[in-house]
Amino acid sequence: MRTSYIPRFLLIAVISFSWSAVAQDRVGEAGEGIEAQVRQLLVGDPERRHEALTALTERGKPDVAAALIQTLRYFRDDDHGIRDTLEAVTKAQPGEGWEDWMLWQEAHPEIEGFDAFKADLFSLIDVNLRLFLRRGVKHEIRLEEIVWGGVRKDGIPVLNDPKHLSSVDATYITDDELVFGVEINGDVRAYPLRMLDWHEMFNDVIGSVPVALAYCTLCGSGILFETLVEGRPDRFVFGSSGFLFRSNKLMYD
Asked: How far, in Å, CA of 195 to CA of 201, rounded?
């Protein structure tokens, strides 16, 4: 699904500023131990972050790799301190950038991350992201591979139960305009591509069947799902969480 990019320096500024204000409280809440030590990576003070990296390097255990990879994306690493620490604790050298380390992480499912650390980090972007990530959250996909897609929760507004016009009345549609066509039980609908370029998803009922369509603006394809499933009285109504998993939109009900 669509990946939205925000200038890296802006992300760094926002996150560094936020953690300068609240990091001390959060570090204190975490108590002692490795989790508290890892949280020092998010402090705005470069010296404290350097001390944390030195301590993690000396500790030498790869269980902090997921947190380091997250930090590598959102903080400047001009002196290669984060990368050097990653190489020291993992004994790997996949490359210099965050993307290289994400591919390495994908190939190493034994490396698990700190769910609370990840939740705190993303809550600085949008506090509503805590609905999806929190300490002890149940999951079937790897939390380590969930990344922020560049928008807040519902930042890409889903199209819910839109009103439809007859083809005669839809004069704003040209004859050569692309649409997604759906026919269920004799009920025929057309969803203009230019509208789904904005919404990326719709929830609707077609031919008395509840459905949702997810559209990928990068590859130009759409997938239609039936949203009423056995054992559940109500249909699923999907929205955009703001997260991606291996470049796929993560939806929520």
From this structure: 10
